[in-house]
Amino acid sequence: MKKRALISVSDKRGVVDFAKSLADLGYEVISTGGTLQALQDSGIAAVSVTDITGFPECLDGRVKTLHPAIHAGLLALRDNPAHMSCLAELDLNTIDVVAVNLYPFRQTISKEGVTLEDAIENIDIGGPTMLRSAAKNYRGVAVVVNPDDYTEVLERLKNNTADEEFRLNLSYKVFEHTAAYDGVIAAYLRDKVGIKLPDSLSLVYDKAQSLRYGENPQQSAAFYREALPNAGGIAAAKQLAGKELSYNNINDANAALALLGEFDEPAVVAVKHANPCGVATGTDTSDAYGKAYRCDPVSIFGGIVACNREVDAAAANQMVKTFLEIIIAPSFSDTAIKILSAKPNLRLLTLDVGASCALSMDMKKVDGGLLVQDNDEGLFEDADIKFVTKKKPTAEQLKELRFAFAVVKHAKSNAIVVAKGTQAVGIGSGQTNRIWAAKEAIERAGPRAKGAVLASDAFFPFDDCVTECAAGGISAIIQPGGSARDADSIVACDKHGIAMIFVGKRHFRH
Fold first, then answer.
1. Which CATH topology does 382-502 take?
2. Chain segment 443-471, per-residue pLDDT in tens
3. What are the residue boundaries of the structural domains of the chain, listed by start?
4. How far is residue 54's CA from residue 43's CA, in Å, rounded to a whole number?
5. I need a labelling partner for 340 at 20 to 30 A (CA). Which of 4, 282, 316, 482 fits?
6. Shortest CA distance to 387 belongs to which of 477, 485, 506?
7. Residues 6+ away with beta carbon under 8 Å from 406
8. Which pTM was predicted?
9. Which sequence positions are flagged as catalytic?
10. Under 8 Å CB-to-CB from 298, ≥6 apart: which residues?
11. pLDDT tens digit string along 300-324?
12. What CATH class has 230-350?
């Protein structure tokens, strides 16, 4: 039997040289559609699939390669006499090399205003079928899905070193590629039909970068970006300066951006180990940064700073005084970049901090499974507020309480936040009981706790937190309520003259 190669590609990078080299190695090249035309225009004696199948392309090209003359040549086991005898009886030939890549579905749905009909039309059928047939029979077929592999495939075919291990690797790449292709289609259609939690969940991510290591040097790691258009979030950031991002950098930056999204006014968020250590709003970035820094000048050292307004020279002159890992902002002035670039390792990232992510779900990997939930959107509505104490918070305190509740929502549970104005002055997070979190937050606030407000991410199980608030001088409290012993906390607040509101919304974060 003659050696045959089937080539049909959407991505035509290097395909002409690849086909010419195969022809020089004695392969008959068969092809379809635009690929066939490109090869013939380049002087390659490529044969149309129609000449092999004896059946014309039909249905506007929807049916071209779905034919036994193609798939028998791909799937026949070369070391099975019955298979080879069958091919001979049917006057069919093996196909020994396949180079196929698929209709640009992902690129199509990335276009603004794309219709469902356009998207559906760019779902490839024949391509994945050929790839899967060839990859299943990898011992007999060298299958190439990535143009970057053309050179090595040619070299190995030429030197007869396309061994089983190499072919298995090519097969793996095919199934990875077709699984991702189908996964993007499934995700697109899942969004169209409005299903959030399907019976079977396919997720597709592209490797954005290999990382030096994970949380610790002994752990290998990589960063993957959502394959859907408009992935958003930290994956969409552009780096202007500094060394490459680490695993912990990316994780902390993600936490900072999540909290930053709670604010419309100029705001700055500082994060350390995925917990906020400084948060404030202000008249501009410089003002907000100064307030955020003063929340915890110790913990911000080596932290991540995220801003929702441009970093100008005034803000940069403050930031450059402290060792920071990353600064994220929608933009940096030229002067700010010059100032901050004095620290060559400091990473400067630009990002549309208001952009939404394509896949708005929260996911946590557990051994043997995946926990999936809606993102925790919003804080509470005004209608949710219950004034439960004799003393009512003032309008200014209500503003402070809302700010504090926004911050505590993004601190690891159990969490307590003390705020004054729209500035966090004490944060207690990640404690195994609520009284420890309260003590930590009030202690960090120090004298600033007097007259400040306090937010709790979940209800007070006992009145001990209120007692701690009274000792620290807290003037008002916001919490979800819902404890069997809420009455005890209300009585304690009334005793100490503290205003407290319930909002009925818990914001655990683990």
1. Cytidine Deaminase; domain 2 (3.40.140)
2. 999 999 999 999 999 999 999 999 999 99
3. 4-193, 230-350, 382-502
4. 24
5. 282
6. 477
7. 259, 262, 263, 379
8. 0.84
9. 136, 273
10. none
11. 999 999 999 999 999 999 999 999 9
12. alpha beta
